[in-house]
């Protein structure tokens, strides 16, 4: 006899949170979730994604178990239906055989046994009708459960796709978070060696070098000034020597001589 088990019966037997609603409704709810909207509303998207991945993974596992049970029940119903159809055919053959035997006995004048086989044919026909009724009654249920199973399969595929989307989004955020951290570290490092920052080590070292350079320039300028003064005094000394020489020549009665180079001539 055909046994009909609904999807709700399966979820109730599982004893999971999904027993509060049909598997199909739960799958549809998760599959339609707007991930981006949820992330926009979340204070910590990373934690939300981690939680959603866990929830989806657990829900998919529960749904797969329940859907497998539903599919199993459908296959059992289909087997019962096939057995009812086979039984109806078998009872039909038995009824035909019994009727033929009754006709044969009646033709031979054995009406008593002929009536017995006619009665057997009637019993077989009754069995055939019962089996046909069970098979016919099961067909709408099989069609309904088949449709539900197909929807559940599609829903599971959608949930698996959504889980993949969640995982990819989580990986993307993780990667972006690492990039941001690296950028922060680089910025901190750059800030610590900012050439324009007066508090940086390089800037202070540069100031020290500039002060030393200034000292060297000052000392060089002083040295150059002293050397110029020496040459100027030397020229004055040459002029004075020339004057003394000419004065001595005048005293000796000699006329003024042509000017000569005071040094080295």
Explain what the structure shows.
- The protein has 265 residues and is mainly alpha-helical.
- It is built from six helices and no strands.
- The chain has helices at residues 7-14, 23-31, 35-41, 45-107, 111-192, 201-251.
- The model is unreliable at 1-21 and 261-265 (pLDDT under 50).
Q: What is the tally of beta strands? A: 0
> What is the radius of gyration computed over CA atoms, rounded to a whole number of angstroms?
57 Å
Could you tell me how far the N terminus lies from the C terminus, measured between alpha carbons in angstroms?
147 Å
Per DSSP, what share of the residues sits in E-state strands of 2 or more residues?
under 5%
Low-confidence stretches: 1-21, 261-265
The computed structural class is: mainly alpha
User: Helix count?
Assistant: 6
Share of helical residues = over 70%
Label the overall shape. Answer: rod-shaped
| Main β sheet profile | none
Estimate the mean pLDDT confidence. 76
N-to-C order of helices and strands: HHHHHH
Number of structurally distinct domains? 2
Provide a brief overview of the structure.
The protein is mainly α and 265 residues long. The chain is 83% helix and 0% strand.
What topology emerges from the helices and strands here?
Layout lengths: L6 H8 L8 H9 L3 H7 L3 H63 L3 H82 L8 H51 L14
Feature tags:
mainly alpha, 2 domains, 83% helix, disordered N terminus, disordered C terminus
